[in-house]
Here is the input.
Amino acid sequence: MVVGSAVSRIILAQVAVTMAIALLLLVSGSSVGAASALSGGAVGFIASLVYARKMLAPNGGDPKAFLSAHYRAEAYKLAYTILLFSLVFTQFKDVQVVPLFATYIATLLVYWVALIFVKSL
Here is the structure.
């Protein structure tokens, strides 16, 4: 289960970055900014989790099945991202967009940088 553990480490790194940014904002006195950062990070790591769950499902070495699973997983990830951002903007009236999107982007950076270093994916 090398791939599963690598994926888990990437998602845990995204959660850690989210928590670190939110904690920094909280310590600086911005509780709304911290909540906004948590929301943006959550969108990022939940979407990654959805992608991972869909990609780890197919077994076998069929390239067509793998490519199909990848497209399906990306579609789910995009749908969840849109849904989660919609929920944030409709339910969190005081959201601060800079911490929200900065933390979301930070989770994306963690994902892409981690993929460079994880050779088993």
Observations:
- The mean pLDDT is 89.
- DSSP finds four helices and no strands in the chain.
- Helices lie at 2-27, 31-55, 63-91, 97-117.
- Residues 63-91 form the longest helix (29 residues).
